[in-house]
Design brief:
mainly beta, Immunoglobulin-like, 4-stranded mixed β-sheet, 4-stranded antiparallel β-sheet, 12% helix
Length: 408
Amino acid sequence: MNSKSYYLIAGMLMILIFSCNKEKSTPIIYAKVNGVIYNPNTTIPMQGVEINILDLSTYSNDSGYFAIEHVPYGSYSIEAKRDGFKDFVSEIAANDSLVEFNIEMSTDVLYNKVFGIIKNQRDELMQNVNVKILNPDGTISQLSSKSGPTGYFEISNIPVGDRTIDINGESCQHLVIDTFVKNSDLEINLTLTSYGSPCNGISTVDYEGQVYHTVSIGNQCWFKENLNVGVFRKQNPWESQSDNGILEKFCFDNLEYNCDTFGGLYEWDELMNYQNLEGTQGICPVGWHIPCDEEWLILTGEVDSLYSYPDSALGFGGYDAGKRLKASYGWKNNGNGNDMFGFTALPGSGNSCQAYFEGTTGYGALFWTSTEIDQNSAWYRILSSSSDKISKSGYYKGIVKSARCIKN
């Protein structure tokens, strides 16, 4: 091989090697950078913020979300800016196909506050009511307050814009307000319906050696506990209470201490003190009486979230009055109520001539009314562990049931 041929072959090999290396060069890999931009010291997202990486840019949407695609792998500066806020600059490593990078902007501009006084329907100052600013997606932001002894609340550093305020407290009305926070402080004074409060001027009633608490529901004033008066007597099968001049009570499972929890159980005639007049005092204290069927209807309509005057037909009616009257404990089968109105109905009633059905507490609360159906039967109400509603039923007066008193 002459020298000329040698150099020609070597040159061709170099070209081939160069071509192979070029085909095997590493391809460019891209990342997607995304995240949410928040207002300072809050979880409230910011809209309209401009974000830049290299020569790529986008704007955050109304949920504060942004995304920039086709960012080559590597380390770069990410910038965010919006009028009224300090420019945000940080280093970001685009080393994965999806990179999450959340941003909190800062500002020297003072944000605004929402403040006010919270009272109830009786013009009483309300303490420990939670006031919270919601995020646009309905979740709770970090901006919140709680009313103090004077009913005053205040939330500072609220970003300007459309805001939703959630007001909620124990045993009171839940209120949601949509408002616009401007470039000035916003005063919002609130009146909430308070549930479970004692009746005006009558917080307790001392009667026959027992203290009964009162609860105001609408325009009615009720005992908060079931009646528990009379001499305890163990009940033998099919034995009845009688008009013998002695007020008697049966207790669930024939155990006297159950009356301390659930109140006494009475046949209708004993409860009515052997009077058949609707709305009679019965065995209630002076100034109080056994509630009639219409008064139970009014109560049901007052507490039900959908029906202001439920159908008076038999069976379960309304929507959730039972749940709102049942205690938040003691009910079986996940049947607890929320006791929103402080009525605190407990499941300890019998539904037979006998009061001692062992193991059946936890399923029902049955309350006599003072309204007769006929000579042998009367109306009563049922709260059940299996329903959020209230049932109206009528049956034989010899059945033993619980009872509440209502103010004249």
